[in-house]
Specification:
With about 400 residues, this protein is an alpha/beta fold. The chain has two domains: about 1-105, Immunoglobulin-like, CATH 2.60.40; about 150-395, Protein-Tyrosine Phosphatase, Chain A (Alpha-Beta Complex). It has helices at about 105-110, 185-195, 210-215, 240, 255-265, 270-280, 295-305, 310-325, 325-335, 340-350, 355-370, 375-380, 385-395, and strands at about 5, 5-10, 15, 20-25, 35-40, 45-50, 60-65, 70-80, 90-100, 115-120, 135-140, 165, 175-180, 200-205, 220, 225, 285-290. Strands 3, 5, 6, 8, 9, 12, 13, 14, 16 and 17 form a ten-stranded mixed β-sheet that branches. Strands 1, 2, 4 and 7 form a four-stranded antiparallel β-sheet that branches. It has a three-stranded mixed β-sheet with strand order 10-11-15.
């Protein structure tokens, strides 16, 4: 599935009549890219630009210039079409606000978030006259009341999606964050992410079926980058797979999950792309999958090891997700475990929980493929010493 990335040429605020240049790249790992598509009406209509002459071993760099003609809230969505004609269900997007040409007033509104909230709202009409999807944009509105939450006073993890800094378990220790999916985020939670923490990029590493089930809410002023795991091609449904009388086909407890984590070690294009992008921007960012456990877990563990944290610390940080997701784990255990034998129940819990052996399997596979973890960093993730220095700074090491 093609993976679109998106960058912005200038920082907001944006003004009527002034061009905004967007650029990025897209690749499919296995196929060439035939076209890149853009939408400004929430995906109702798409404008396609062909990319002839591309090959499977190279991505496509694209550039899109848009000059807004009236003030309001906008969402630029980007997706790709592979050489086989497959239109990506994964969409990268950037939600932004355009002001009239009153520079002083606009600057004050944009840079003073006091009394403003990020509201997931229904956009009655967009600038093309088409209705947008509900909860597609979390927009800023002037409510006249202060709802800004100071980071130092917020609990850890934060929100229903269990947001926390990568690494040290305190706010301010890292500018990089991890969580579960953001579907259902509230206005106060969105304001905390963008205003208090200054998050400018959200890396969504869910697969196409997961994003279709729970579409990503686009936060005003922050771009979203969709990065699909390149080896997850088939739909998975835990409700149908992890049931009594069926679950024992996955072998002994932890066996299947260790295999999955070894497979994650082969998804280095995804991990490398996210880490290189974080280093290039040097700004606060958030990475998430569905539960913030497996794909997010290995990416964060890789980042911590690159930054020089001890193995004991990395494992403890990885296992912290069991505490964050304790309620969800208990609910799924009750819902899926009815009628299971003790052996089946043990297998079920091995799927629901993070386990030390999973992370060990991931690192063992990465080192086996490249001879060492250093080889994995240099040849697999393709990180330069300069990029590594930026990542260390962002994570506070």
């Amino acid at each position: 599935m093609p993976n679109p990335n998106l960058e912005i040429s200038v920082e907001p605020p944006y003004f009527v009549g002034r061009a905004v240049v967007f650029f990025g790249w897209v690749d499919d790992f296995e196929h060439s890219i035939a076209a890149v598509q853009f939408s400004l009406d929430g995906g109702v209509h798409w404008t396609e630009y062909a990319t002839p002459g591309t090959s499977a071993d190279r991505g496509v760099r694209w550039r899109f210039t848009y000059t807004p003609r009236k003030a309001g809230h906008y969402l630029l969505s980007v997706r790709a079409v592979s050489g086989t004609g497959e239109t990506s269900t994964l969409v990268s997007g950037y939600a932004f606000q355009v002001f009239e040409n009153d520079t002083a007033t606009c600057s004050e509104q944009y840079h003073n978030p006091n009394g403003s909230a990020q509201q997931p709202v229904r956009m009655p009409e967009n600038n093309s006259g088409q209705r947008r999807n509900e909860n597609q944009i979390a927009q800023e509105t002037d409510t006249g009341s202060t709802i800004k939450t100071h980071a130092a006073a917020a609990s850890l993890p934060f929100g229903s999606f269990h947001l926390r800094p990568i690494g040290e378990q305190r706010w301010g220790a890292s500018k990089l964050y991890r969580s579960g999916e953001l579907f259902g985020i509230t206005s106060a939670e969105a304001a905390f992410l963008t205003h208090d923490l200054g998050i400018r990029t959200v890396y969504d590493i869910r697969n196409e079926f997961e994003t279709a089930a729970h579409p990503q809410p686009f936060l005003m002023g922050a771009k979203t980058v969709a990065l699909v795991p390149n080896m997850e091609r088939r739909r998975k449904d835990a409700n149908k797979r992890l049931v009594a009388g069926v679950i024992d086909k996955y072998g002994e407890p932890e066996q299947r999950m260790r295999q999955n984590y070894r497979r994650y070690a082969h998804e280095y294009p995804l991990i490398g792309k996210a880490l290189r992008s974080m280093a290039a921007e040097g700004a606060p960012a958030l990475v998430h999958c569905v539960n913030g456990k497996d794909r997010t877990g290995v990416l964060c563990a890789t980042l911590l090891r690159i930054a020089g944290f001890s193995n004991e610390f990395i494992v403890a940080d990885y296992l912290h997700v069991n505490k964050s997701n304790a309620r969800q784990i208990a609910e799924e255990e009750k819902r899926l475990g009815a009628g299971m034998t003790p052996d089946e129940h043990a297998i079920l819990m091995s799927f629901l929980e993070a386990r030390p052996s999973y992370l060990a399997a991931f690192f063992d596979e990465a080192e086996t493929q490249y001879g060492s973890f250093k080889g994995f960093i240099e040849r697999g993730l393709r990180l330069t010493p300069e990029q590594i220095d930026v990542l260390k700074f962002l994570i506070g090491s």
